[in-house]
Amino acid sequence: KGLDLDGSKHDLGVWLGPIEETQGQIEQAIQAYQAAFTSLPSLELYSTLKKLSGANWGQLRPALIQTLQDSHHTDALADVYLFEEEWDQAIGVAGKDGEWNYPLIEKVADVVLSFRPYWVIQASRKQAEGLIAKTQSKYYAAAVRWLSKMKQAYLSSGRKAEWLAYLDGLKSTYPRRPALQAELRKL
To answer: Phi and psi (nearest 5°) for 185?
Structure first.
């Protein structure tokens, strides 16, 4: 009855789901977890629903994805796409959320590095150059962290010469920034 009431059902669903599951009431457990997911989507609830739904997963999954797409939980949507190894969809979520959501971009970049190195290069370059452009040394370590991802992507795609040319270009563009030069030497 409680799942039919108005309001957030996350806590109730998370509490009720395992109880129904241990009693062998799989359909009721799915309903409880789905109510929780609708209120507050997460990868954990998604994977629980995938495990419990078995042969019915093909019917349940589109509804869960739609719930994620309609919500403002872009991190959860990206997590699900990464979990399902749907790299391009995860990249789309990271790109749609804008460059300000750098934790999401970084999470996606870390996972898709060996599958979509060209995107990782582009995203990392944009983040690093944005930080360098601020001309404040406190941002240089973060910029170099992005450049390190960029380097990994270049090397994993067999483009070492391009990476070295880019790095040399950065060093020659900013010769009067000793703090940046010191960070760049770490690469």
So the answer is: -65, -20
| pLDDT, tens only, 48-64 | 999 999 999 999 999 99
Per-domain residue ranges for the chain? 1-71, 113-187
Q: ∠ CA(47), CA(50), CA(51), 5° rounding?
A: 90
Q: Which residues contact 41 (CB under 8 A, 6 or more apart)?
A: 64, 67, 68, 71, 73, 76, 77
- Token pair belonging to 54: 């078995």
In degrees, rounded to 5, the angle at the alpha carbon of residue 77 between the alpha carbons of residues 58 and 60 is: 20
Band (69; pLDDT cuts 50, 70, 90): very high
Tokens 């000793």 locate to 178
Tokens found for residue 7? 């309001």
CB-based burial, 78-99: b 16+ in 10 Å, e otherwise: bbbbbeeeebebbbebbbebee
> What does pTM read for this prediction?
0.88
Cα–Cα–Cα angle for 94, 95, 101, nearest 5°? 55
How far apart (Å, rounded) are the C-alpha atoms in residues 129 and 167? 12
